[in-house]
Amino acid sequence: MDAYNDRAVNTIVVMSSAQVGKTEIINNIVGYVIDQNPGPMLVLQPTLEMSQTWSKDRLAPMLRDSPCLRGKVKDPRARDSGNTMLHKTFTGGQITMAGANSPASLASRPIRDVLADEVDRYPYSAGSEGDPISLARKRSTTFWNRKLIITSTPTVKGASAVERWYDSSDQRRFYVPCPHCNEMQVLTWAHIQWDNDTKDPNTTRYICIHCGAILEEKDKPRMIRRGEWRANAPFKGVAGFHLNELYSPWKRWSEVVADFFAAKDDPETLRVWINTSLGETWEEQGEQVESIGLLNNRENYPAEVPAAVVVLTCGVDVQDDRLEAEIVGYTVDRQTYSIEYAVFHGDPSQRDVWDKLDHFRAKHFNHESGLTLSVSATGIDSGGHFTQVVYNYGKERYYERVYVLKGVGGGGRPMTGRPTRNNRLRVRVYPVGVDTAKESIYARLKVREPGPGYCHFPAHYDEEYFRQLTAERIETKFIKGYARRVWVKKRARNEALDVRVYADAALDINGDSLQRLADVLKERIAQRGHVPKSPPPKPAGFIGSNSDWFNKR
After folding, report:
1. pLDDT 10s digits, 353-383
2. Residue-wise over 4-35: b if at least 16 C-beta within 10 A, else e?
3. Bridge partners of 299?
4. Which of 41, 44, 213, 353 is deepest in the core (most CB within 10 A)?
5. Which residues face 408 on adjacent strands?
C-alpha cells in the first residue's frame, strides 16, 4: 500500500499464500482512491461472476460501513445514479469491475489504475483478444501516473503469471529479527521443525538460521512488528512482494504443519498446500508417465469391487464408430480402482449402441462386503460429431445422473463449472477443465505405493489400455510471448485418458462427500451383518499374456 504512493513504482506484484491480505490490499487501494485520489479504476477478477461476488461481498459493505466513504458513491436505487453491480461512479472518478474471461469488459474506458486479483486463475486469452492483463493495461496508456497492481497465489512453475511478474520485480521479502540474536531473516518452511517420533503438530518450532535458537509461536507477533521489506533484485519500476503463511497472524505454525501432514501423501493436495500455504509454485516431478510401470502394478482384486471403494462412476467417450466407457471406484482417501472398461462398436447415431451403454451403466457389481454397488453418476463427452445425439441421451437420463460434458482447455480452470443451457434442447452442459483434470490424473498415476491418491488396476487390463492412459505429456510452450503449459499427444489414441477425465468429472459434479458415502455403506454392511475383509490387495506383478479385452467387448 505504501508502494502505491511511490511515484517511482508503476507496477506492484504480490505473490503470496492464501488469506494473508492480498484482496484486502486491493480493497484499501480502492477506498483510498475514492476518498483521497479520485480517478478511473478497473478491478479485474478471473471471471465476471467473481467480479459480481467481489462487488456485493467486499466493495458494497466497505462503501456502506466506512465513514470516509459513506455517501461518496451514489445509492444504486437512485435514478441515473451511475451505480450498477459492475460500474460505479464517484466525484472525480469511477470504478469498473470486469472478468478476465470477458473481452468486452476490458475495453472502451480509459483507466488509470488496474487492479488484477488472482491472475494465475485468468484464462490465457480474453476470448480471441489476447492476454487479459495486457488488454487491461492498454486502457491506462494515456495516464502519466498509472498503476498496475497484480496479486495471486502461484500455480505451476514456468507457467505461473504472477511468478513471471514477480521475477521481473525487485523481489522484496519480509525480514524479521530473531528475538535471541537479533539477526534478520526470512521465515521459510525449511526451518520449521517438529518431533519426528510423534509427528505431533503441537511440537512445532522454528529454528533461527543464524544462532540455532528455538523460536515459538509466542515470538512471532513481536518479530513481525519489527520486520521490514528488503529487495533482492535491482529496482526497475516494479515492486514485488512475496509472503507465505508462516507470517500470518491468523494461522499458527502448528496449524500450518497439521495442514502439511494432511496434504503430503496426495500429490493433488500437496500441490494445493505448496501454492496456498507457502505461496510457491509447484514443480512437476516429471513431464509424463510411462505405461510399463503401471502395467506391472496390476492386481488381482478380491472381489469385483474391493472393500475400500465407496462409490462408482462411469466416464464415456464418443467416437465416430464406437463408444468407450470405464467404470471407476473411489475410496475415502481418493484412491481409484478401475473396475471395468468396455468398447461398444457401432454408429453413435443409431439407438443400439446407446442401449448397450444403458445396459453397461445398469450393471451391479459384487462388493467385497457382500453387497452390490452400481454406477452413481455418468459423465459423457459432447464435443465430437454427435453433439445433438449426446444432448438427447443426457436429457432423457438427467435424473439418472447422466451428465453431459464439454471439455474446456486452459490452465487454472476448475475441474467442473456451472452448467449452461445455451442449446436448442435446453440440456444442462457442464464445462470440464480438461487440463486441470489431466494434471490431477497424472499426479495420481505417479504415486508409487498404495495410499491416498494411488491408482489401482485389475489384472485383466492389457497393455493398450495403459498406452492410451499415458498417451499425452505436458509441455511448456511460448504462445504470443507467454509460457503456456499444453497437453500434447505422443500417440494417436488416448481414449482411456479421456474416459478417466469424464469419470472424475462425474464424481465432482455429483458433489457427494466420500466420507458420507463411506458411512452410508458402513450402515448397509452392518444391517446385512457382513464385515469387509481388511487386508488391501497387493500388486500381482507382471501378468503374462495380454487379453484382447477391447475386441472382446
Report:
1. 999 999 999 999 999 999 999 999 999 999 8
2. beeeebebbbbbbbbebbbbebbbebbbebbe
3. 458, 539
4. 44
5. 433
The structure's pTM equals 0.68
Asked if residue 262 belongs to a domain, the reply is no
Q: Burial of 321 by CB count in 10 Å (0-12 exposed, 13-18 middle, 19+ buried)?
A: exposed
Rounded distance between C-alpha atoms, residue 424 and residue 346, angstroms: 26
Closest of 81, 78, 88, 21 to residue 55, by C-alpha? 88
Cβ atoms of 525 and 371 closer than 8 Å: yes
Q: Answer yes or no: are the C-beta atoms of 299 and 539 closer than 8 Å.
A: yes
DSSP tally for the chain: helices H, then strands E: 16, 23
Identify the three-state secondary structure at position 75. coil
* Cell numbers representing residue 152 in the block: 495471486
DSSP state of 56: I
Considering its fold, how many domains does the chain have in total? 2
| Domain-located, residue 467 | yes
What does the block give as the cell for 418? 456451472
Calpha distance 82→73 (Å, rounded): 9
Cell of 553: 467387448
Q: What's phi and psi for 34, nearest 5 deg?
A: -60, -40
Cα-trace Rg, the chain = 27
pLDDT tens-digit profile of 146-181?
999 999 999 888 778 899 999 999 999 999 999 999
User: Each residue of 307-324: pLDDT tens digit?
Assistant: 999 999 999 999 999 999
Q: Among 181, 214, 243, give the residue marking a domain's end.
A: 243
Is residue 374 a part of any domain in this protein? yes
